[in-house]
Amino acid sequence: MAVYGVKPEISDGNAVTHFDEIAQYQAGIYISSNEAVWRILSFPIHERSPAVVHLAVHLENGQRVYFTTANVQQIALNPPDTTLIVFFVLCQNEAFAKILLYSEVPTYYTWNASRKSFERRKRGERVDEQTGIFKETTIGRLYTVHPNEDECFFLHMLLVNVPGPTSFQQLRIVNGVTHATFRSACQALNLLEKDRH
């Protein structure tokens, strides 16, 4: 246990207290013998498990871009890939990815930020009847979208419920019918309540 006090300073007859926050913090720290040994031996103090991968949600050509006057034309012609765009490409190229929801991809694939690609996991638990596929406890978390952002919100809803989409357009196809909006696609999949309910 640590005990410390503050001595008031008298200024013009009024008591004024000044705190040295750094000294106060240092005086108030208590490290037990167990924690001291743990730190001396350089054991990890904390860990996060399972790992969480944040997944982008945006409308077509709506990804966030950062540009300068030097690269504005290049960025406008070739916007950077996001996890969502790369997920569509993955579903086009790999049969196993076509059965996955967007949020399940980080369980079986790692996100390589420098190459902007999903790559198969090389270790973990083997997936039955799938050669070269490994599973980890990693969780995919889609960024939240406020319901006021209509189409993006309904896109988010489709990504959470439709496995293996290959494009924004393919997400709007329900039972062979191409819907004009993500909202109408959600209604066709009965993901939204109707006024009659």
Question: Characteristics of this structure?
Answer:
197 residues, alpha+beta, 8 helices, single chain, 30% helix, two-stranded parallel ribbon, two-stranded antiparallel sheet
Briefly say what this structure is.
By secondary structure, the protein is of the alpha+beta class.
Could you walk me through the main structural features you see in this protein, from its secondary elements to its overall organization?
With 197 residues, the protein is α+β, with helices and mostly antiparallel strands. It has a domain at 52-188. Helices cover 30% and strands 15% of the residues. It contains eight helices and ten strands. It has a two-stranded antiparallel sheet with strand order 1-2. Helix 6 (150-161) packs across helix 8 (182-188). The longest helix has 12 residues, at 150-161. It is extended, with a radius of gyration of 26 Å. The termini are far apart.
SSE layout and pairings?
Layout: E1 9-11, E2 14-16, H1 21-28, H2 33-40, E3 52-55, H3 72-77, H4 83-93, H5 105-108, E4 109-112, E5 117-120, E6 125-126, E7 134-135, E8 139-142, H6 150-161, H7 168-171, E9 173-174, E10 177-178, H8 182-188
Parallel strand pairs: 3-8
Antiparallel strand pairs: 1-2, 4-5, 6-7, 9-10
